[in-house]
Amino acid sequence: MKPRFAIAIHGGAGAILKSQIAPEQEARYRQALAQAVEKGYAILERGGSSLDAVQAVVETLEDDSLFNAGKGAVFNSDGKIELDAAIMDGATLRAGAVAALRHVKNPIRLARAVMEKSEHVLLIGDGAERFAKERGIELVDESYFFTEARWQALQKAKARESLTEKEKHGTVGAVALDQFGNLAAATSTGGMTNKKFGRIGDSPIIGAGTYADNETCAVSATGHGEYFIRAVVAHDIAALMRYKRLSLQEAAEEVVMRKLVKLGGVGGVIAIDRHGNIAMPFNSDGMYRASKVEGGKTFVAIYKDEK
User: Fold this and answer.
1) Under-50 pLDDT residues of the chain
2) In sequence order, what are the beta bridge partners of 218?
3) CATH 3.60.20.30 fits 6-303, yes or no
């Protein structure tokens, strides 16, 4: 039987090696991923929408300093934090995105407001934060986002010391299918350590880092954003399904494991189709990920060899 609902989430991809993560740190990541995916699954199980589920998951991860989104985001070259996020509704193709935020506690909440409460898709910087104020969305002082680990990563980058992929960049995201057959995707990020001020990655670019269409699939990407933008990764997966009739797994692997690799792009995606099938390919050493389908067990993984 096909599942009526399912969810998949990620917390970033890159050179994530077991030898570089302390056991207690790994346990924290696994627990955080499990709790987040369970939260989204519970919403779907009680008949909630895929949009509500992906937003709830992403907000949970934005609030967790383990991940490069919201609290715990990385610093740019000016020593500032600039946050990006997007959400998309597969039933209507409506989308909302925000970029270069400095004071919005949960960027994904503002992205949802842009989608539902404005005539626009993408708002950035001061204008986006004015809109947040108008909508009563929580703003915080920039100090809220500060974490010592991310600050030290910036100092290493400034000194041109090598950073791990975990220190360089990361993203959080979720995709879901609800009991009404609707798909949704959401993505949120702090971008790349030491990025140029004003740099925007793929996460808030609809069709690059975030995409959802009930006819095909929902996708949230993570990795080196410039490559994901150039390859229009999320939409390309949907297009391969629509026009070449590839399965979700085939389409996702074609884009992530071949097209992106050829360009030199490192990262991965989580994707779900209208039948509840899930694909989570990545061409890096690891990707923080979790999933759960109706009636199934919670799956949580970090490294390449975990199935």
Assistant:
1) none
2) 212, 272
3) yes
Could you tell me which residues come within 8 angstroms of residue 297 by beta carbon, excluding any fewer than 6 positions away? none
Q: Which of 60, 171, 187, 222 is catalytic?
A: 171
Of 223, 87, 203, 78, nearest to 142 (Cα)? 78
What values do phi and psi take at 118, rounded to 5?
Answer: -140, 170
CA dist 281 and 248 (Å) reads 11
Cα 123 to Cα 226: distance, rounded to the nearest angstrom: 19
Give which of 294, 298, 28, 44 is closest to 183, Cα–Cα. Answer: 44
Q: How far apart are CA 144 and CA 72, in angstroms?
A: 9
Exposure string (b/e) for 218-253, b if CB count within 10 Å is 16 or more?
Answer: bbbbbbbbbbbbebbbbbbbbbbbeeeebebeebbb
Grouping H, G, I as helix, E, B as strand and the rest as coil, residue 169 is strand
- The one-letter amino acid at 43: I
At 107, the amino acid letter reads P
- How far is Cα 200 from Cα 181, in angstroms, rounded to an integer? 32
Strand order in the sheet with 210-212: 210-212, 217-223, 267-273, 278-279
* pLDDT score of 16: 82
Q: Where do we find the tokens 């934090």?
A: 81
Q: Is 60 a catalytic residue?
A: no
**24-36 pLDDT tens trace:** 999 999 999 999 9
Q: Which helix (H) or strand (E) holds 98?
A: strand 95-101
The answer to whether the pTM exceeds 0.85 is: yes
Helix, strand, or coil here: 38? helix
Strands 267-273 and 95-101, bridge-based pairing: unpaired
The token duo for 30 is 């696994």
Instruction: Give the three-state DSSP class for 156.
Output: helix
